[in-house]
Design a protein that fits this description.
This protein is of the alpha+beta class. About 30% of the residues lie in helices and about 15% in strands. Helix 1 crosses helix 5 and helix 2 crosses helix 5. The chain starts with about 35 loop residues before the first strand and ends in a 10-residue tail after the last helix. The chain binds the ligand C=C1C[C@]23C[C@@]1(O)CC[C@H]2[C@@]12CCC[C@@](C)(C(=O)O1)[C@H]2[C@@H]3C(=O)O, 2-oxoglutaric acid and fe (ii) ion. Keywords: Dioxygenase, Iron, Metal-binding, Oxidoreductase.
Length: about 375
């Protein structure tokens, strides 16, 4: 039973009551790199180096695939427009999400994420690897178990519960179809013809078995945003993520040469798509997973939604044979399941190493790589790619 003790529980920090950023939430090194604007007016230079790439799905498929290839190879992220998910539905999703976060803390804490669980309410799952706390709360759920999971937040299953479930179910239906379409475009972006992309799907059943997870982020208003961080710099671990950021921007992408954070503009109706680590593995490093973070601000709170796509837990993901090129003829990574990769990433956070590097195959060891290529033949889900 929730009691008023949630306010004194070490699990709950009452952001709304905070008058400053305590040491527990103050991050060093936040301003080591400049922040530049990634919006339409950005990149006054010749090549628009800071402008976040845009992919419009209304373009003809080869043009859209070329835009995806450029963005996935150079940025690991892009703004997705013309995706067909109605703006009115996105507005209803945002309204329901904001309503959920506005619930009193004891009610949200009814759904607190238990130790070792991936779904539930609380600090971002990644925060358990760090001594400092982030300026955010979030709620993770599996769209497949929506009605069951959401009873923890709304045990009486009243009108708010029903509306939330209905809107999220409609959203999930649209997003799952969109995810399949985008996966097809990603395969085309690897240079496959439409028929070859269909053949990859027939063999590997990537789209068919792909799972979706929704994670809602709430970044409360922050009295001293220069000291706090909404979400620590990270790469998403799965295949790819659709991020819906509300009217308040806050997502930043890391770019090298010169090192800088590019602030992603809040474009109404657009998604930001992030390439994740397992997709980088699947494409043999041709598509980059993007390092990104979320910052907070003093004026208003911010809400965002991540719709994460990835393989089923038992599927081992390794480089697709179709992604190998004359320049990179060998698989660069060993096959891993998503849970295995999460364990590697946990170690990487502890040591400061790169998780992707930790699953990389030693390219000098010819025999090793060739054996892995031979062993890597995909069987049906649950087996190796
Ligand atoms: C499917 C997932 C990706 C995610 C972990 C999760 O199981 C559910 C939440 C996701 C999220 C959202 C905030 C950032 C992130 C790193 C985290 O801590 O939880 C991502 C995870 C990820 O991409 O690895
Ligand atoms: O809030 C955002 O814009 C980013 C969220 C994010 O990176 C995530 O949920 O993984
Ligand atoms: Fe992320």
């Amino acid at each position: 039973m929730p009691t008023a003790s949630h306010l004194t529980s070490p699990r709950y920090f009452d952001f709304r009551a905070a008058r400053g950023v305590p040491e527990s939430h103050a991050w060093p090194g936040l301003h080591d790199h400049p922040v530049v604007d990634g919006g339409a007016g950005a990149g006054a230079g010749e090549d628009d180096a800071d402008r976040v790439p845009v992919v419009d799905m209304r373009a003809d498929p080869s043009a859209a695939a070329a835009a995806v290839a450029r963005a996935a190879e150079t940025w690991g992220a892009f703004l997705l427009e013309g995706h067909g998910v109605p703006e009115s539905l996105l507005a209803r999703v945002e309204e329901r999400v904001a309503g959920m976060f506005a619930l009193p803390a004891p009610e949200k804490m009814r759904a607190v994420r238990g130790r070792g669980e991936s779904c539930g309410y609380g600090s971002p799952p990644i925060s358990s690897f760090f001594a400092k706390s982030m300026w955010s709360e979030g709620y993770t759920f599996s769209p497949a178990h929506l009605r069951r999971d959401l009873r923890k937040l709304w045990p009486k299953a009243g009108p708010d519960y029903l509306l939330f479930c209905e809107v999220m179910e409609e959203f999930h239906r649209e997003m799952r179809l969109l995810a399949d379409k985008l996966l097809g475009l990603f395969l085309r972006a690897l240079g496959l013809t439409a028929d070859e992309a269909l053949a990859v799907e027939a063999t590997h059943r990537i789209a068919e078995t792909m799972t979706a997870t929704t994670h809602l982020n709430w970044y409360p208003r922050c009295p001293d945003p220069k000291r706090a961080l909404g979400l620590i710099p990270h790469t998403d671990s799965g295949y790819f993520t659709f991020v819906l950021q509300s009217q308040v921007p806050g997502l930043q992408l890391f770019r090298r040469g010169p090192d800088r954070w590019v602030a992603v503009p809040a474009v109404p109706g657009a998604f930001v798509v992030n390439v994740g680590d397992l997709f980088s593995i699947l494409t043999n490093g041709r598509f980059h997973s993007v390092f990104h973070r979320a910052v907070v601000n003093k004026e208003s709170h911010r809400v965002s939604l991540g719709y994460f796509l990835g393989p089923p837990a038992q599927t081992r993901v390794g480089p697709l044979e179709e992604a190998l090129t004359p320049a990179r003829p060998k698989p660069m990574y060993r096959p891993v399941t998503w849970p295995e990769y999460m364990t590697v990433r946990k170690k990487a956070f502890a040591t400061g190493d790169s998780a992707l590097q930790m699953v990389a195959v030693d390219q000098d060891d010819d025999d090793d790589a060739q054996t892995k290529l031979a062993n890597r033949k995909i069987k049906v889900s649950g087996e190796a790619y």
